[in-house]
Design brief:
By secondary structure, this protein is α/β, with parallel strands linked by helices. It is built from eight helices and ten strands. It has helices at about 40-45, 70-75, 95-105, 110-125, 140-150, 170-185, 200-205, 230-255, and strands at about 1-10, 15-25, 30-35, 55-60, 65, 80-85, 160, 190-195, 205-210, 215-220. It has a six-stranded mixed sheet, with helices on both faces. The protein is globular.
Amino acid sequence: MIELLNVTKRFEQKTVLHHLSARFEPGTVNMIIGSSGSGKSVLMKILVGLFSPDGGKVVYGTSDFFDLDLEGKTEIRKQIGMLFQNSALFDSLNVEQNVLFPLQMFSKLTTRQQMERVNHCLERVGLAGTNKLHTSQLSGGMRKRVGIARAIALEPKYLFCDEPNSGLDPLTSIKIDELIREITLESGITTIVNSHDMNSVMEIGDHICFLYQGKMLWTGSKGHIMDTDCQELNDFVFATAFLKQIRKQSNGHTA
């Protein structure tokens, strides 16, 4: 479980997050949505400890992350898996070496156990047998799946995904969504996803947080998102759907 309690963040004189509170439960996919500049990326960086809040708490289990000493923070970081927007693979390493990297850095497994874990993770994301491929040989969807394999290599309790469908075609996006959902349920992970993709929100989101100008304007389930009286959320949801339809029509005419 992760809990935000009254989290505030300022940069110089500008407040970018205003007293945010939310609770993210194990075994659920939690979607943080909002337009560009709403504070999603800053919140994600606070959640994983890259930024410190100027007020409030970020509680992992029963511990306020920012009250812990270096050893305590390191222990929590070992329980975090991260899927970056651009996958952030090491281009100088092959698939196997990319997934192996966190195991070599942070685990106490033997070399044989590390390789068994690498192969298990690659098989889990549908990439068995791709160990020796280099990143230049991978499609966008394959890169994302290698990123997921690396993110789950240490069997994390917490999985953070930053725009996991960015740059992917609709079919590949669905497959990545399904994979994130399955892994979350299988392992009881607390998963938090930054996204502006309403298809993903409606497909895999268990709990949704809507940020607007740094404020948490709405939280709830996908089943209630269409019934909200929050005008800003309605504008975001329907504008996103409208723009996506326009793009599809435009692409169709171009083709």
